[in-house]
């Protein structure tokens, strides 16, 4: 997967991962992909809902590391 920007939101609590994601998405062009790294356990529900409501597509979610959750969102 070709990632256009990586956002490090580790250590931030809700709602900051969403705030930072929104700001980073605004810097991307339609079709580009943002990779987000966060430690916020609520981020899965928050980012999934945010992406859908904003017309973006959650391409992939990975929590294999157990403490760092990774998301790949394509700008709609």
TrEMBL record:
Signal peptide positions (record): none
Highest rank taxon of the organism: Bacteria
SUPFAM superfamilies registered for this protein in UniProt: SirA-like
Domain UPF0033: 7-31
InterPro entries: TusA-like (IPR001455), TusA-like_sf (IPR036868)
Family matches, as Pfam families: TusA (PF01206)
CDD domains to which the protein is assigned, alphabetical: SirA_YedF_YeeD
Family of the protein in this entry: Belongs to the sulfur carrier protein TusA family.
Name of this protein: Sulfurtransferase TusA family protein
Organism: Paenisporosarcina macmurdoensis
Source taxonomy: Bacteria, Bacillati, Bacillota, Bacilli, Bacillales
């Amino acid at each position: 997967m070709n990632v256009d920007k990586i956002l490090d939101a580790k250590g931030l609590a809700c709602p900051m991962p969403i705030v930072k994601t929104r700001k980073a998405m605004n810097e991307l062009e339609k079709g580009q992909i943002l990779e987000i790294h966060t430690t916020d356990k609520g981020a899965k529900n928050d980012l999934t809902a945010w992406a859908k409501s904003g017309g973006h597509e959650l391409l992939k979610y990975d929590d294999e590391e157990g403490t760092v959750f990774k998301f790949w969102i394509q700008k709609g």
